[in-house]
Design a protein that fits this description.
The structure holds two protein chains of two kinds. Chain A is built from 13 helices and 17 strands. Chain A is α+β, with helices and mostly antiparallel strands. Chain A folds into three domains: 67 residues, ATP-grasp fold, A domain (Dna Ligase, domain 1, 2-Layer Sandwich), CATH 3.30.1490; 130 residues, ATP-grasp fold, B domain (D-amino Acid Aminotransferase, Chain A, domain 1); 165 residues, Succinyl-CoA synthetase domains (Rossmann fold, 3-Layer(aba) Sandwich). In chain A, strands 7, 8, 9, 10, 11 and 12 form a six-stranded antiparallel beta sheet that branches. In chain A, strands 1-6-2-3 form a four-stranded antiparallel beta sheet, covered by helices on one side. In chain A, strand 7 and strand 8 form a beta hairpin. In chain A, helix 7 runs antiparallel to helix 9 and helix 8 crosses helix 13. Chain A is elongated. Chain B is α/β, with parallel strands linked by helices. The two termini of chain B are 17 Å apart. Chain B is globular and about 55 Å long. The longest helix of chain B has 14 residues. In chain B, helix 4 links the parallel strand 6 and strand 7. The mean pLDDT of chain B is 96. The interface between A and B is large, with 53 and 67 residues.
Amino acid sequence: MRLLEYESKEILSAKGIPVPKGLVISSLDGASFPLPAFIKAQIPIGGRQKAGGVVMARDKKEAEAKVTHMLFSTVQGYYVNKVLIEERLDVAQEFYVGITYDTVAKQPIAIFSAEGGVDIEALAQESPEKVQKRHFSVRTGLPEYKAREMISFSGIGGKTLTGLSNIFSRLATIFLENDAFIAEINPLALTKEGKRVALDCHLEIDDDALYRNLAIAEKGREPGRIQGGRSSSDFEKRAAEIDNLDQKGVAGRLIEFDGNLGLIIGGGGASLTAFDAVQRHGGRPANYCEIGGNPSVLKTKELTKHILSKPGVEKIAVIMNVVSNTRVDLISRGVIKGILESGKDPSETIAVFRVPGAWEAEGFKILSKYGVECCERTTSIDEAARLGVEKLKWGEKRG
Amino acid sequence: MAILADQDTRIIVQGITGREAVSFTKDMITYGSKVVAGVTPGKGGQSVHGVPVYDTVYQAVKDHGAEASVISVPPAMIKGAALEALSHGIRLLVLVAERVPRKDTVDVLEVARAQGAVVIGPNTLGMISPHNVKIGMAGGPVENVRRAYMPGPVAVASRSGGMTTEIANLLTSHGIGQSTCISVGGDPIVGSNFLDLVPLFEKDPDTKAIVLFCEPGGVIEERLSEMVLSDGIRTPIVAFVAGRFVDRMPGVRFGHAATIVEGKKGTTAGKIEHFRRAGIHVAEGLDDIVSIVKGLL
């Protein structure tokens, strides 16, 4: 879960990291402005400045006009329902401090650069000498001496060195205490008055740890909250509802595409494989989805009906890896029921059925009763995709 | 032969009295794995399929000399259970749970590294050395495992649990056996990724080729390519990279937590390019694994 800038800054502030004076508003009523001010759209994405999501205002009139313009508009595809208004500081220098996980070293990594306000990954590529990186232990956090070493290597001394390293170490504590997987202050400014202030902050919290970060989880549940990532289509939302019908297995995680071959595919890795294979053999998928973990007949049935309800989808391909936990007979029953309830003929509608594994004899029996040919485990996922695409094309020619 | 474990490895199951664990414990025993004890705090004295249940790992190690543990407890309890196992010298841990907080995984791995213990997972189905040992849920019921897996010279490591069995099945149906097959787990950080396993396969005299199932996301495949070039890995590697369509959908997470393209990082195109540069064979279709492997053996 990506926190909005003002939410991240609340967390920084509570840990004693200075942030600019400011206020968050959803309307102009009674708002007073520190002037001159920055007006910043609160949306869960980087690169706001270039997209017009961060603007400056010199006086009250200009500020009001710019807030009015930004509030309830769309920036980078996100609807803006909150703006942060902040004092403008006189900045002498900008730094970058960040913490994330290094998935290769399997440890947190602290990153520092004396060139702030930049894309740190691009800078690390072009001028690696300008970026300091150190691993540290989740058990001890980032000791201040380690932070000092990194900053001192960048040629910074005096009060700036001690002040920055203190903030850096605190940021690591915030990272660990809140189960973040990204904690970034970029830029961290040194003002002309010699103060260190976090001008922008990016925190992303591990969704799998929200159960123990209740205050943050609560924010995520606020109605109207803007979620990060891609927004779902209505077709995808309905599939998610189907997946929530009961707790048995997964039959959903659907992503809509504009093709004509419905896909009932799973589990995770096999879905990726089957989708690629369908495209490689010239097919046009109507959707991606994932089934697995032995979903109920109900969910498989409803998902089948849902996919078949999509305009232009006459045929479905049912493809899974050799299953061990999921039962072939239950998948077969769900798919057949879904087709029948859609008023269609299973033998015409199923372009290919390739789900070998646990309870396959029982499953194949159900399918053959409806005249559906099924593939044995010797027919690979690749071959099954080819057969499905061929059958669809043959049907189109004939039709 | 196998890496990491064999039929003599003394295995315990932590959380053995859970529904899923009861079921896979039976499959493990039937396959011939040596399950010596189970641990569920508060249920000491019971037994599961004839396996004695203890309250603590301490007792299971003391009475049975346990060496490996399959940990089948809810995600929030993984860290505690794994640290308990590590504190009693367990040298191989298989962490089954999905959705383990990343910080907990990293914490467990830090301790494991200090002790030289190997961790598989989290979010893994476990591992199988055909006709030798099965640790965890991989392959499911024994009759399924026997049909899909057979012993032989090809190692399999997969970011997808289901595809571990699928690839074994593909090889088996073409008469090619496997040495050790490992579901590495679908999380961004796992105890044993390709970088950890390939050197072990390289040292295994019975592994003549390695098949990898890769997905979009992360940088492990890219780093593996660098490792193959710099460390001179001689065992030939065949890689299949699934999810090519995901390259055009950055920011969308597919299935596994790790399967996400971030900006330009973690694309399948990038992984394939790195593989080719390092001389790693890339299978265009899943089936192509067979002909490539045949040419290498």
